[in-house]
User: What shape does this take?
Amino acid sequence: MKKLLALLIGVCLIVPVADASAKAVKLGRGKTVSSGLPGKIGGKTSIGETEKKCDSSCATCDKKTGQCLTCPTNMRLDNGKCYNVCSGVSCISSNYSPNVTNKGCCCERITCPSGQRLSNGTCVNVCSGVQCAPNYIPTASGNKCCCESSCGTDKVYNPTIGKCVEKICPTGCANMCVTGCNSCSTGYYLDYDNGRCPLCSDKIANCAKCTSKAGATSGTSVTCTACADGYELSGGKCVASCPTGCSSCSSSSTCTGCDSGYYLSSGSCLACPENATCKGGTETFICDSGFKKSGKFCIALVLNKDLGGGCSGNSKIPSVCPNGTTRTSRGCCPQNATKDYQCYQCAVM
Assistant: This one.
């Protein structure tokens, strides 16, 4: 009997608690309530609020919007999504294709001219790096490289230019020509078409020293490194170098304009004379105040002819000197005058 009574009391205590919990849920419909369920932050959730699914291209994303925040390697972020770095890139020619590299997106060459092959994105001679068995030589044939038996009796294989050349040692060659000419003397360049050594000046006028290499598609590319006397490098060419004092010239000996401190005279730039001013360009010199032109010089004005007064009799020394000059045995001399023609004198007839 005592056990039955205890069981009934326990049932009575449990029912109100369960009822109260049910009422709390009912009253809290549509509102945030304490649920006590595991996996909820702080034991709270918001009905109707769910996480957005990230785009599969994302490295990380905003869980509220689903937009990408960061992208995997070799992808770029654009309006919340990640795209291949080469997406939308168009190369200038059909010979090139956009390709993802560790530097980003690069337009790399995918086709080469006849006689060349692709190597690390660059077109090289189709036989470049090819080594044949003894007594055989690599020979380009279209876009293939073939190991041929020999160059014939009158030719020798030149490994530097990768071709069969005549069994001669051309003028200007700097080596013994056992396998053709492999390098040329100063003033000459190696022709990658025939293994000969033409003069640098044959390719670039007035060039004294040059280097050469195989052309990008065919032939020989020549670069001038030094010009003949009287010429200087400009844009890969040898142009006439102007004489001292020239600001411009039409040849190595004819000036068309002068630097400041020089004046133009019959195609030459002459140093400005004493007691004169030279602004350069194409102007002649201008004598300072108190002096006049006399040929290529500026001489002091003569008192009785140019300034008047202060002169009488047969003396060259004026009796009265103009302001700014001192009366000396040489005449009326400006300060620091060192030569007689810088001093005012009387004209003795």
Notes: The mean pLDDT is 79.
